[in-house]
Amino acid sequence: MNWYRRLMIFVTFFISCAAMALLVAALGTKHWADARAKRAKNPAESDGRIHFGLFEGRKELNVAYGWRTYEINVVDLLKSEPEFLIYGFWLGTVASVCAGLLFSTLSAIFAAVNTATTTSRCLAKVNGLYVWNFLAVFFDLLALCFWVGQFFMSIQYNVLSREDKENEWTSEYMAEFGYSFWYGWPNKNGCRQEKSLEIIFKF
C-alpha cells in the first residue's frame, strides 16, 4: 500500500474518532430539546425554561416569585407519564445513536489496522471501511429521523409534566431543537469519510 493511501486511511481514522466524540457528547448532554413555557393564567408574569437530553434534563419555572429549578429524569418520566414522549421514537433514537457509535468505533479500529498493516480479511480491509462508514452514517440519520418525528408529533406541543399542565403551564409551539441534536448530524463527518475513501480507491 503506497504512502498516500495510508495517509487517507489515517485521515479516515481521525474523522471516525471525531464522529465518536460527537456521538458520545450527544448521548451525554442535556439539550436535545430546548423550550420556553408560560402560565396561561398570567403569561406576562410567568416564564419557564426547559431543556432535556435522552436521559436527563432541567426545568426552571418562575411565577413572579423567583426561579425554581427541577431536575428531569427522562426515563422515570416516561414510566410514570407515558404521554410525555413517544416511547418508540425515544427508544429508536437511543438505539440508533448507540449503533452509530458502535460502527464509528469499528471504522476507527479498522482504519488504524489498515494504516499499520495490510490485512486480507474482507471486513478488515479498506473495502470494509465503506461498510462501517455507511452503517455509521445510516444509523446517525435514523436517529435524527426518530427525533425529528418525536419533535413534530410530541415535543412541539408539550415538554411539561402533568402537574405543570394542571397548574396551567404550557410550552405549546415554544420548543426547538437543542445543540445536542446537532451533534448527531452525520453529513460533515460522514461525507468527509466517504470522500477520503473515494480518494483512496482512486489511488
The CATH architecture can be named as Up-down Bundle
Main pleated sheet = 6 strands, antiparallel
CATH class: Mainly Alpha
In total, the number of strands is 6
How does this model look, in words?
The chain is of the alpha+beta class. The chain has one domain (3-202): Butyryl-CoA Dehydrogenase, subunit A, domain 3. Helices cover 59% and strands 16% of the residues. It is built from seven helices and six strands, in the order αββββααααββαα. Strands 1, 2, 3, 4, 5 and 6 form a six-stranded antiparallel β-sheet that branches. β3 (56-62) and β4 form a beta hairpin. α1 packs antiparallel against α3 and α4 (126-155) runs antiparallel to α7. The chain starts with a helix and ends with a helix. Its main location: membrane.
Please tag this protein with its features:
membrane, 6-stranded antiparallel β-sheet, Clarin, transmembrane, 7 helices, alpha+beta, transmembrane helix, disordered C terminus, 59% helix
